[in-house]
Amino acid sequence: MHIRKNIKNISLWAVAAGVFFLNSCTKKQDAFVNRKVSFNADWSFHLNDSIIDKDTIGTSTKWRTLDVPHDWSIEGKFDEKSPAGYGGGSLTGGLGWYKKTFKVAAEDSTKITSITFDGVYRNSEVWINGHYLGKRSNGYIGFQYEITPYLNYGDKNNEIIVKVDNSKQPNSRWYSGSGIFRNVWIETTDKLHVGQWGTYITTPKVTAEKASVSIETTIKNQYKESKKATVTTTIFKEDKKVTSVTQDITINANDNQILNQSAEVENPILWSVENPELYTAVTEILVDDKVVDQYKTSFGIRDFKFDLNKGFILNGKQVKIKGVCMHHDLGPLGSAINTRAIERQLEILKEMGVNGIRTSHNPPAPELLDLCDKMGFIVMDEAFDMWKQNKTKYDYANDWDKWHKKDLVDQLRRDRNHPSIFMWSIGNEIPEQWNEKGIEIAKELATITRQYDKTRPLTAGMNPPVNMNIDAVTLQFEKKDVSINPLAGSGVLDLIGYNYAHQTFEHHLKNFPKTPFIATETTSGLQTRGYYDAVSDTIKKWPIRWDLKFTEGNPGNTVSAYDQVQTPWGSTHEATWKIIKKHDFLAGMYVWTGFDYIGEPTPYEWPSVSSYFGIVDLAGFPKDVYYMYQSEWTDKTVLHIFPHWNWKAGQTVDVWAYYNNADEVELFVNGKSVGKRSKKGDDLHVMWRIPFEAGTLKVISRKDGKVVLEKEIKTAGNPSQLKLTADRSTIKADKKDLSFITVDILDANGTIAPNANNEINFSLKGNGKIVGVCSGDPVSHESYKGNKHTALAGKCLVIVQSGDKSGRLELTAKANGLKQSTIVITTE
Q: Is Hydrolase given among the entry's keywords (predicted)?
């Protein structure tokens, strides 16, 4: 393998010097210095030409410099002939190379140096200074290589090379992305240290007065002689020391030792979805009174169970899980992980009332779990979308025999300290669920899971747990003519996970009298933001059947944003929630999906390239059904009316309202009442069918005759101007932070133009860059990485990333015939 040596160097002298420290942190947590440092900056990247380069690099290879995380597929063009197919977003995979040179301080030659990749999609192979470190096929799980034996120290360069092969397509049922798409770290430790993912903290007994804390720590000795050491674990609440425990150990040369410590926390502050309180355990290893290693573990103290009759109980309180399923891509940013982008998604979902996240259908980025810990979400952490049997030709089933145990163990060890995780899922819609082989595999996976974590229940997304003809469900239950899914009936699972089959939920206790319920995946309602069919009270099942090509639908591959279109295996949003909310024994649900995602554009195929399932679109703009959930899932007072009020004169329009905390709502057109409406029975919305008359649509909600809220929608004139609104006007100058800027197309009076689809051009001044543009249109083939984009229903999004200098970023948006707009973002 021949490569050029003249790429930019990056020195680890400074960061290596900051890894170790002599002062104990048992007095104050902020004395802790992380032993791992970011290794994301200044990589060189090359995407092979499949014909010319094949799978090699050489002296003539052309490189470009970039920072990781990086997804090369999102930079490409949408292609109907892409081997990934429309299911994979019609974007290309391919084979890419990354390399980086760096230096390591001479004094670190006596230490252990490792490199950690949080995720590389997929089939990664790594070399350091020409030495082959290994291969990892799974793109979603992190892995680490020790590189100590192969390093050059002092002034000599080191070179790391990563080959990423995502050329065999399709290997996923959704958009995967390609490349080093998660963070990379260099970790430097003493030869005596806490191992990778080396702590396991549980709280076996929790009361309001006292919590017992069990700490299992894996100590690794890579010295050639045995070592005597003192291990102290100190528990902090923020910067305040809570308690500590100390133990002396002797560990043999080149050996691992598991140390078990116990502590008690008086009057613990319990983790909950409303108040996600966290503790930190800092483990110190001392040799001759000198700290040689420190390792930090964040954890939470909470008590929970899934009860057969009462559902999910958290800290003694019944909590209905109001969750959504999420894929890993970040819309226009692709699969390249960014903490702020994940945080924004979670903020939008939290505002809707979501309290649960399912990581469908793979281990998530560590940053997602950290944020769920801090923000209060009930996480279902999922391992696999397939076992031995393929769903697509080149997927993980081909790697199952060699890798599944290692990948599962690594996921469990990596994730098991997160207080936000309340259940493990060992699979999603696994074909083997229907046979004995599947039960055999499930038993193996369950044994592995319980070996590494006994504190959380095990489930799987089964489609469905009860094998039945859904159209004849009532008749079947009357005849008691149902058969249980073999996996569901095997006794392997602690929770029966329902994917869809909402008609069977109410019969759960009859079918599974010993095992609690969780709806692992529900609904699959479909909408295009801002588009409305003329008649809203007819339910449409698109496609007609999952295995038949859909030949109907709307012009432009649109789907009505009234909650009226569902898949044949799913339901409308209202239908499933009505059932879940009714019964205590139904612990909760994870709706498919929280956000739209790239790929899987059900019910359509090309030219659609992203999904219609989201409650929030690909750009992060809520669809109307968002407010149905908000009215049901939060204590906020909600009043939301739709659609827009730009139609043809005299056209009949259905007007819907979602509301809460009120007895009735009254609708006015240009000041004239067109009637009062109240929700009856289990209704979740009200409707008026009225002729369009240009002007103002106004709705008032009242309780006991008193006004609660008022909302108006006005008929917009011709598009006239652009308005820019940033989610945050001040961001960090760290080359990572993001400002998400909404572009609204307005008429001369400031009313949003709901049918405007102007092309908007963007320019940016200052130390930063535009990293994403999007409108949420599933049919758009414009690049997410460009400087222009066409609006959908009067809205567009542009994402600006900071540079490494403080200052001002000026973003200007222009469109033909419209008044331009500029916004200033401060970086500091």
A: yes
